[in-house]
Amino acid sequence: MSNISTMELDPNKANKEETKITGRKLRVGIIGTGWIAHSHMDSYKRMPDVEIVAGADLIPGKAEKFFKEFGLEGVRCYPNDKAMIDAEDLDAVSICTYNRQHAPCAIYALEHGVNVLLEKPMCVTTEEAVEIMRAEKKSGKVLSIGFQPRMDANMREIKRIVESGVLGKVYYIQTGGGRRRGIPTPFGTSFITDETAGIGAMADIGCYSLDMVLNAVGYPKPLTVSGYKSDFFGKNPVTYPGHPEYAEAFGVDDFAAGFIRLEGGIILDFRIAWAMNVNTPGDTIILGTLGGLRIPSTDCWNGSTGGPMTLYQQVGTQQIDTVIPLIKDDGPSLFDRKIRSFLDAVKNGTPAPVPSSEILYNQAIIDGIVKSAECGHEIKVKIPEI
Questions:
Q1: How far is 23 from 53, CA to CA, in rounded Å?
Q2: I need a surface site. Which of 188, 195, 297, 372 has the fewest CB within 10 A?
Q3: pLDDT tens for residues 80-120?
Q4: For 346-363, what is each residue's pLDDT tens digit?
């Protein structure tokens, strides 16, 4: 493990060029116009200080159809991200491509002075994450990763509970979740082929559950990983009535688990599924020396918690259970908050709302599970110098 300082890891804390933008609309481009790009566009259209000027997609005609669907005229469309960035004067891009294109698109944009909102997962491998961060550090631009659940009031409450000290020293975390049947094939095969996705359930929903607990405890560095992954459902034609070709195309994980040792003596027990023969692999549990917190599981991990949380403590000789009601959150949608916080960082030259220095560890855990599963034993997490 490299001995990397916080300053070296976080480009936002390095010397940063002035990036404030005032008096005009932000010029934004969309890279990849598939399913998740629709959520980005829905939010961008609600932002009065944004002008969508360009889009890029590898499939001919797809970008044009996308912008027509949103009633936008005059948006220039390109066959790939490089052509768009080379031709346009952009302030920012949303990268909404499949996983394996996240790194090259983000690096090219940053190298050309464009701020980046990069959809989750950050990328596929730890090495790719490091290369993205090197480009970010050199550019001085904003790079934020698309973890909108962080913006939820109940997710923020989890972090406040841990930081309050009521749990004492956290020493064990169990997290995960997933779907009994929920492989995302209605959107085509980009989620399930190795050539496009590279990672399956871990990238799609596992990164969310990891972020929830890692963010709560301050994102400690992962030290070792023992991982497992499988694809029993993804490669079974019975899973896809009428579409046996999906089983033939399937090349990623539909279930994964990992046992991770974190800096500070914390153990992380993680499991996630697109498909399994049980309704849930368990609630999230954060155990500390003074208390424990149970967070009900959810099958999707793109919004709030699965229900009211429970805090377990001993007061004197009494064991006390305190139910923590869900916070009613009637503000803007989580996606709007994600977009808005990114735009504000771009306009004001402030740090990214979801910094790469944190999500690097999220990515390293996922990549560690993959590598450990493939070699069949525990591995040390190695993060190259930034």
A1: 17
A2: 195
A3: 999 999 999 999 999 999 999 999 999 999 999 999 999 99
A4: 999 999 999 999 999 999
Kindly give, in sequence order, each residue whose CB lies less than 8 Å from that of residue 69, ignoring residues fewer than 6 positions away.
none
For the stretch 118-142, pLDDT in tens is 999 999 999 999 999 999 999 999 9
Same domain, 145 and 251: no
62 in the same domain as 94 = yes
Domain around 87: 6-149+334-355
Distance CA 361, CA 121 (A): 12
My answer on whether 201 and 291 are in the same domain is: yes
210-236 pLDDT tens trace: 999 999 999 999 999 999 999 999 999
Q: Is the pLDDT of residue 3 over 70?
A: no
Residue 1: the pLDDT is 35
- Number of structural domains (the chain) is 2
Question: Count of CB atoms within 10 A of residue 331's CB?
Answer: 11
| Same domain assignment for residues 198 and 269 | yes
* CATH number for the domain harbouring residue 299: 3.30.360.10
